[in-house]
């Protein structure tokens, strides 16, 4: 099991109802799609006071797999349009994908057929 093309998992956590902003930004930077997961935040009131923001417990996570070469562009665009200073109050981080199954590139598949 080897990941032939280096990829990263980008995770954006935003206030509920802001996932469209995340996906629009990600697509502008070259991402193809993502998966939305409903979540609940357990924010600390001290953090909210320190940053001067109201924390909402209802969150949504957007999981996006992208080639390593566009990861930084996608992350920056997502943060620009739905980051902590926007209504989405989002955070964005990434994890390397070491091994994966089922992430074949559909474009290569179509070329072979």
The average pLDDT score comes to 84
Query: Radius of gyration from the CA trace?
Result: 16 Å
Shape: elongated
Ranges where pLDDT stays below 50 over 5 or more residues in a row are 109-113
Major sheet characteristics? 4 strands, antiparallel
In DSSP terms, counting alpha (H) and pi (I) runs of 4 or more, how many helices? 4
Strand order of the largest sheet: 2-3-1-4
Question: SSE string, helix = H, strand = E?
Answer: EHEHEHEH
How many distinct beta strands? Answer: 4
What amount of the residues lies in strands?
25-35%
**Category from helices, strands and their pairing:** alpha+beta
User: Distance between the terminal alpha carbons, to the nearest Å?
Assistant: 24 Å
Give the helix proportion (percent range).
25-40%
Summary of the model, kept short:
With 113 residues, this protein is of the alpha+beta class. 32% of the residues lie in helices and 28% in strands. The chain has a four-stranded antiparallel β-sheet, with helices on one face.
Break the fold down into its secondary structure elements and pairings:
Layout: E1 7-15, H1 19-28, E2 35-40, H2 45-51, E3 58-67, H3 71-82, E4 91-97, H4 106-112
Antiparallel strand pairs: 1-3, 1-4, 2-3
Helix pairs in contact: 1-3
Give your account of this protein's structure.
There is one protein chain. The chain is of the alpha+beta class and 113 residues long. The protein contains 4 helices and 4 strands, in the order βαβαβαβα. The protein has helices spanning 19-28, 45-51, 71-82, 106-112, and strands at 7-15, 35-40, 58-67, 91-97. It has a 4-stranded antiparallel sheet with strand order 2-3-1-4, covered by helices on one side. α1 (19-28) packs antiparallel against α3 (71-82). The longest helix has 12 residues, at 71-82. It starts with 6 loop residues before the first strand and ends with a helix. 25% of the residues are buried. The model is unreliable at 109-113 (pLDDT under 50).
